[in-house]
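## Example record

The block below lists the input lines for one assembly entry, exactly as stored, with component labels intact.
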Amino acid sequence: MLPKLDVVAACLAASLSVASAQTFRRLGTCPTLGCVLPPDQQDFLPGQEFDIRFEVHAPKNGSEAFNNGVPDEAFTATIAKDGRRAKSIAEFFKLKEPSVEKWTFSWFEDLFAKDAKTPSVVNVASKAYRRVALYEPGTYTVTLKYYSGKTTTAEWTVRPLATKKKAKNVIFFIGDGMTTNMITAARLLAHKTVNGKYQTLLSLDEFPVLGHQMTHSIDSFITDSANSASALYTGHKSTVNALGVYADSSPDPFDDPKVETIVELLSRIWGSAWGAVSTAFIADATPTALTGHTRARSQYGVLVDQALNGVANYSWTKTGGPDAYFGAGAEQFIAGSGSFEGKDYYNEFAKKGYTVSLNKTSLLAAPNNKKALGIFCKNNLPVWLDRHIYTDNLEIINDPSGANKSAKDLPGLKEMTLKAIDVLHKRGGKDGFFLMSEGASIDKQMHNLDYDRALGDLLELDDTVRATIAKLKSLDILDDTLVIVSADHGHGFDVFGSSDTKYFNAQTDERAKRDAVGVYENSGLSQYTEPKPGVSYGTGANFPLNWDPRYVIAAGLGANPDHREAYGVSKTPRTPAAAKNGEYYVNDKDRPNGFVVNGTLPTDAAQGVHSLTDVPVFARGPCQDTFGGTYSNIDVFYKIANCLGLAQGRNVTEGLKRRRD
Amino acid sequence: MLPKLDVVAACLAASLSVASAQTFRRLGTCPTLGCVLPPDQQDFLPGQEFDIRFEVHAPKNGSEAFNNGVPDEAFTATIAKDGRRAKSIAEFFKLKEPSVEKWTFSWFEDLFAKDAKTPSVVNVASKAYRRVALYEPGTYTVTLKYYSGKTTTAEWTVRPLATKKKAKNVIFFIGDGMTTNMITAARLLAHKTVNGKYQTLLSLDEFPVLGHQMTHSIDSFITDSANSASALYTGHKSTVNALGVYADSSPDPFDDPKVETIVELLSRIWGSAWGAVSTAFIADATPTALTGHTRARSQYGVLVDQALNGVANYSWTKTGGPDAYFGAGAEQFIAGSGSFEGKDYYNEFAKKGYTVSLNKTSLLAAPNNKKALGIFCKNNLPVWLDRHIYTDNLEIINDPSGANKSAKDLPGLKEMTLKAIDVLHKRGGKDGFFLMSEGASIDKQMHNLDYDRALGDLLELDDTVRATIAKLKSLDILDDTLVIVSADHGHGFDVFGSSDTKYFNAQTDERAKRDAVGVYENSGLSQYTEPKPGVSYGTGANFPLNWDPRYVIAAGLGANPDHREAYGVSKTPRTPAAAKNGEYYVNDKDRPNGFVVNGTLPTDAAQGVHSLTDVPVFARGPCQDTFGGTYSNIDVFYKIANCLGLAQGRNVTEGLKRRRD
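Predicted structure tokens for the full assembly:
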């Protein structure tokens, strides 16, 4: 049931739309046939650069079929501030009128149409206006007129100016997929209670200010890590898989209307140093959203090039490349099919003056005054649990050089982050720095239903935060540095009791195994904090002393593929479901002593999926008090940007001159 | 593996204990054979009254068997402040030495012992010291000596004084079982987004300060609503099922060592008015924890008597009874088997000067200057969804008079809360008031996996909070009133996508039904906010306009009994599992068009269970800034108590004189 009528006011259009919750959408931000990108209800930082795209849709068939599939190429668009006279887009932004682009795309109106293989086809006429900015705070009304009488309106809000830099540095930790529920579970595993009182706490527990941010996409209530990272870094929500752009309907994944990111702004305005650290492959969404502009997060090679060289196909803000860039994913660096244009990106970085480290020893020895690249293995970094406890799992072919061997001299998130701070502090100098540090496998292991591996990496993030605060103190920059710890989305994980593994394993009947679970008073206390000869690891105060006690947490989530549940640690990484004829069923090799739980997700799902929940924001340092309460993920950007004085009323480019090569 | 050795320092004892996480415990707060209650690591408000109990255990058999099962009756106990000279308990508190009590109890060492029906039996010698208080902030060391050389030590901390009242009134909303995940889902159902921006928000979203509280019990990491409510109201964690006491091992559920509650303190010190409102039966844990002192929350009749008359078997602070007491659960008021001593508690309350209302009309008409009781039905109040949308479900025999008819003239949480504020404001006068208002069925419906009913009641709570703030403003007491909204524990609920009910219902294969679920970009937007003729209800801006759209939320939790999942609203209240030979299986009458999900809980579980997650605390008003960050549930009590000036360095009883009858 898609709307047949376009209406004048977008808010009215929205209230009449019944097309808004379907499985598939023609274009999520465009319930009418006339599309304005950025769409209605978007916010902007004063001076933030962005592109504009208009599309007029002419569905050829399906419930919306219109005008015999001929889109109106004579559409017009205007912009007006606070009720002042509307001007054409070209006039307002002093641009040459662009030419009309045309393309065709198709989509399914619902699952029945998909099953029947009956797509709806849409012809499009479009124009894009590139690299504009709004400097004056207030409300702008953009009006698209098309089909001789139809109108789509978008109201844009330019937020207040904040030109003064209150924090010299910002360190933004992202626990990918990390929720309050997981933080609570991680605390239980690593920290001991005596009669209900924790004897030690997480580093996160000591943050003075707490907020919640809403993670939903612009056009779906469940987000992925691409558009949620973009929201955090740009103040603009987008569509699943999109980075630094509003997704349009064109076939080209690199022509979507862009928005300037926090590190682009910071480079342009203040010339600060910036860096990204991740336990994922560095071309993954959370790190590349800092510099990436594409609708398709899977364009890994291009995204690494964009991080180094900026957007190539349009005039756009260059950051000069990251000052520190540490993670995994050698596939995009080794010359070959995974790298951009088949080039050797170790060499591309080196040519731009980077030291290149392929192991921890080299990383720690790298000079702090030079730009630094560190890529430590293929794929993602092995998780904390495998690096420290189940080290047999490191025996995989993942050397970052491409050699046929295992990467063993691996840094963790803490080593990478502390080194990045050294480099950024040195290179940023009086201009300060911005660092994003991501605990990526919290998410990746939750997808695998591998709770222990996820929680191990959450504890690694927490340990890194603790070490970071100590580091900032030792560098005497703690009071100048805003430290934020948050997430990009959740997974519906929670702990609901304990399980007696001895009893569980002694039962042969699958139903009887469930009786090993103790709930309420029978949950008992955490045994992960009890030292035990032979299974206690020298992993310090902030990690479990025993990952494999008799009584383990019983935990789970509501969004599952078919799988077996055995509770307790899996000594090898999990693969809960296996494919058979294109559908996923229980993987009989995974947790073979467990009981079968049939899934709740579509049968093509091999893994768990992201969830809706608001995620926590922990803040300390300058501007910390602005992070209390509940807000959207885009507000995290505006809060950081205001603390960094990035809301400028004029086109500031002084920073670019100071960016060092 | 239970410990064979008792050790000197309790902290050392704790670190050596390997008995701490088992399914069953001899006594959760006592890993050694000598027990101090309150145990090690407990905090106290200066001047807060409490009892002390010592127990010496002599296990007759089992892994801990000791001294042929003969407990040491000659044990001694001392207390010393900050390293000063230790005095005997009797000397320190100027009490007569109590006589020794003796009893026997038994427990199972693990699930194998339970299956084998081989309990361990323990003989106990004990002494209790009743109604003491510590007035001087600092650290106290309590030492129990027994068995000629064994020692158990408890360190108690008396928190700082805070004698000044900063808030005149406190309103404490408890969403029972309410988590951040549920709040996020409720927002999605009731509030509309346009291109990712919410057009309206929850009342909770507008609170300036947010915190997280840890809900775990004193001796298990999953709590129930009794001991978590006690922690919130007394600053003392306890054991599952316990209210206002530390659970001891004696057979009598009414002789456990008590702690004074917030309303007892407030009555004694300031003589403020107080009230409780709940959508549960009023004898349920969350309301009765305000005044109840028993290890057994199921003592419903006694608990109602304790609310009215205070503790009967010991000298203890009397509150004079609640000024407003509104909820359900007529079973404890109608003369008969459900009421204390078979008495008519409507009459017992009336004799003490209460107006008694059995329906909404009567409630609203009750005078504000008199104490008010309102009991509106048997069992729990029907949920918001059934009261407003699926009203056929009100056709049950639940009249509060005991008559064989349906209670139809029902108030909701909002009407009860606003009326309670009128009564408390009037009766509290210059002494102010404390009100606890509970959205109880958020929890009760999550137990049933009935997400829509739970979220409806969460939205009712939010609507009540909004109306309360408006009410306080209209009474000109908003700035004098600390408003807190929190929860007592969670359930592991989250939303992970949408489901196309039309597609779901068109599939006959259970696996194919799962393909109706849309995740990520296919989750779409909420259709609950779209008006639709015939299914849009006049339920105002803060509730869904359509509870039964084509595209519904796909949600769930990890802790389940066997059940069917159909996504979307159940038009009748759910009963997911049904008993067969003492085990629970899928209830074939519940969601018959759904697909089967086998459970993850013990097979004797008919319902979902509580979860571990920290829960949010929203605060506004005087002292709001003290509620930021992460802390234990007991800290909520200390923060409120300090804001109310209840931390007193002397025995203050002035309030009692001002309590009106």
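Chain A touches chain B through 131 residues (CB under 8 Å). Confidence is low (pLDDT under 50) at residues 1-20 of chain A.
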